[in-house]
């Protein structure tokens, strides 16, 4: 259940068995000069069928779309028989669309066996970038303006201060020259630009497409960021921040060996409530930890996607449960407090 069944170069669609893992699918497509462009955080472990069943979203949705934008046809086996459309067309004017019923059904209706996806030729240009902002609020304001102008690159993600510091800890140890260079950068950011290390945050960018399109997109964003106190921070930092997404999955499993329970949660929110939501969630987590006697905990977030009417925010939670009783009970209470916070914000 993990094969590419066929690929149509003329219509730019490919049929896959649903059990194929994301990175394996992209590896095989790349050999043929194509990509689906769908890259969720779980890309290295999750399957195509899982993406459809959970109505997954990818980090590069600004260019390629979410899974519901990529799916052309789904074959699903149910207790009553096989559910599938008998045509392959780009759009139907009648409804309901059975694809949309299957998308997000999470296995409750049947077993997805085959998926027909849109594909694209590999982008001719791929470039990372990053921007440093004096505060999380300024970064969110910038993202809102980018969304208004429809200037989003393939990926645009804003790390809060806590996640930015977390990423710095994971950075490989520098050489002597690297340490000197880092010192110069820190001096420039804190002394010349006047950024407070306890409030500044970083945005990571990924540009994909024709080289001319990428250059225009870069120029637009780097010029616009100045209006919000930001400045470009280099391609290397952008790539490192982008890859942090995949690293976190491994860190979570490693943390369990040291009695650290960690989890990630996401939600979408209107633009005018984004900053308030982040502030409230962090407050509720800190308060809940104090009540549970948890002294060693971590809560950070990043804005991962932009839409016309709002954005998506990922929260990362972690705590050390050593000597605190049943970690599952603690985790469940921890999670419920944040679900409540989402509802009241």
Compact overview of the structure:
This protein has 345 residues and is an alpha+beta fold. The chain has helices spanning 22-31, 48-53, 61-64, 67-70, 98-102, 136-149, 161-170, 176-192, 211-224, 235-256, 274-292, 327-344, and strands at 4-8, 13-17, 34-35, 71-78, 81-83, 111-118, 120-121, 125-133, 155-159, 201-209, 231-232, 260-270, 297-306, 310-320. It has twelve helices and 14 strands.
- Per CATH, which architecture of the largest domain? 2-Layer Sandwich
- What would you call the structural class? alpha+beta
The name of the CATH topology of the largest domain is Uridine Diphospho-n-acetylenolpyruvylglucosamine Reductase, domain 3
Distance between the termini: 43 Å
- Using the coordinates above, name the CATH class of the largest domain: Alpha Beta
Domain count, please report it. 3
Helix content: 40-55%
Radius of gyration: 22 Å
The number of helical elements comes to 12
Cofactor: FAD
Domain FAD-binding PCMH-type: 1-122
Pathway: Glycerolipid metabolism; ether lipid biosynthesis
GO molecular function: alkylglycerone-phosphate synthase activity; FAD binding
